[in-house]
Write a structure and sequence with these properties.
Number of strands: 10
Structural class: mainly beta
Radius of gyration: 19 Å
Oligomer: single chain
Strand content: over 45%
Number of domains: 1
Number of helices: 0
Length: 107
């Protein structure tokens, strides 16, 4: 049993019980709800036809910042060098439940 959700401009394949790092999202009391569900599969090879009212719920495990990425710009013979670092913020979420068509799949 798994679902495909979209958040932060990316798509993730999630199943109940999974822990994943996503782009930083706002949450209240540690609860997160994903309403943009793209696909749900209950059995291997088959997908749910209607996704109206489908949602995925989870709890926030933690927040942090990822590894530093260095951006280096260089133009030879022109004495031009620029270096910049970036650390992306993330939210770590544990998927609790997938709701679709009145059926509930829990961890």
């Amino acid at each position: 049993m798994y679902a495909v959700i979209r958040t932060g401009g990316k798509q993730y394949r999630v199943a109940p019980g999974d822990v994943l790092k996503i782009e930083k999202v706002a949450h209240e009391n540690g609860a997160v709800e994903f309403g943009e569900v793209l696909a749900v599969s209950g059995d291997a090879g088959s997908f749910e036809q209607s996704l109206e009212g489908a949602k995925v719920t989870g709890t926030v495990v933690g927040e942090g910042r990822g590894e530093k990425i260095l951006v280096f710009k260089f133009k030879r013979k022109k004495q031009y060098k620029r270096m910049q670092g970036h650390r992306q913020s993330f939210t770590e979420v544990k998927i609790n439940e997938v709701l679709v068509g009145g059926k509930s799949f829990k961890a």
